[in-house]
Design brief:
Strand order of the largest sheet: 1-2
Largest sheet: 2 strands, antiparallel
Number of strands: 2
Helix content: 40-55%
Mean pLDDT: 73
Length: 212
C-alpha cells in the first residue's frame, strides 16, 4: 500500500471521528459521566470544602473544576473523565469508519493504526479536545452541531415597475377622454377624406371643360 493511500485512509477516518457529537451518547451515559467528572473534581480539590466550582453540562459535557487551593492545575487535560470518554468515543467512531469504508481487508489495519495514533487518548499525544470550559453553556469539541434554518423571501419588484404603472395609468386616462368624445374616433378622418374627394372631382371637371 502506497504512502498517499495511507494518508487518504487516515484523513477519512479522522473526518469520520470529527463528525461525532455528544448526542450520539445515550443521555443516561452522559449523566453518569458528568457525575463522575464532578466527583473527580471534588477529590482532586481535596473535598467539597476546597471545591470552589464544579459543574458538567449533560448536553455538551462541558466541565469546569476550580479548587480554592489550585490543585486542579496539576491535572493534565487528557486525565479528566469527560476528555477520556469523548476521545475514546471519537476513536471508536474513527475505527468504525475504517470497518465500513471501501478498504480492502488487508489494508484495514493501517486505517485502524491511523485512528489509534491520532486518538491516543490517555497520553500527551491526545488530540486537542476542548472539554473544560469557563461557562456552563460554552461549546465543546463534542457539542451538537447547530441546525441552520434556511429562510426564503419573496422576490422584490424591479425599481422601474412603478414608472410603468404610471405610464399605463396615463394611457388609460387618454383612452377615457377618447371614449367620452361625442364623435367616433374615425369621424374626423372620414370628413377630411370626403372633402378631399369633393375637391378632386371639382378639379377634374375644370380640367375636362378646358379640353373640350
Amino acid at each position: 500500500m502506497r504512502l498517499n493511500e495511507h494518508i487518504v485512509l487516515a484523513l477519512a477516518a479522522v473526518s469520520t471521528a470529527a463528525a461525532w457529537d455528544t448526542t450520539q451518547m445515550a443521555e443516561k451515559l452522559r449523566k453518569e459521566l458528568c457525575a463522575e467528572q464532578v466527583l473527580f473534581c471534588t477529590n482532586v480539590c481535596g473535598g467539597e470544602g476546597l471545591t470552589r466550582e464544579a459543574f458538567c453540562n449533560t448536553n455538551t459535557l462541558g466541565s469546569k473544576c476550580a479548587c480554592s487551593n489550585g490543585a486542579e492545575a496539576a491535572i493534565r487535560r487528557y486525565q479528566w473523565p469527560v476528555f477520556q470518554r469523548v476521545c475514546e468515543a471519537q476513536r471508536a467512531e474513527c475505527r468504525l469508519g475504517c470497518d465500513h469504508s471501501n478498504v480492502a481487508n488487508g489494508d484495514k489495519s493501517a486505517c485502524f493504526n491511523s485512528c489509534d495514533a491520532r486518538m491516543a487518548c490517555g497520553t500527551e499525544h491526545a488530540p486537542e479536545l476542548k472539554m473544560m470550559v469557563q461557562n456552563f453553556d460554552d461549546p465543546t469539541s463534542g457539542s451538537p452541531k447547530p441546525i441552520v434554518k434556511v429562510t426564503t423571501s419573496a422576490p422584490k419588484a424591479p425599481a422601474d415597475e412603478p414608472a410603468k404603472e404610471q405610464k399605463s395609468t396615463k394611457g388609460t386616462k387618454g383612452d377615457a377622454k377618447k371614449k367620452n368624445s361625442p364623435l367616433p374616433t374615425g369621424s374626423s378622418s372620414g370628413a377630411s377624406s370626403s372633402a378631399a374627394g369633393a375637391v378632386s372631382v371639382a378639379a377634374l371637371a375644370v380640367i375636362a371643360g378646358s379640353l373640350f
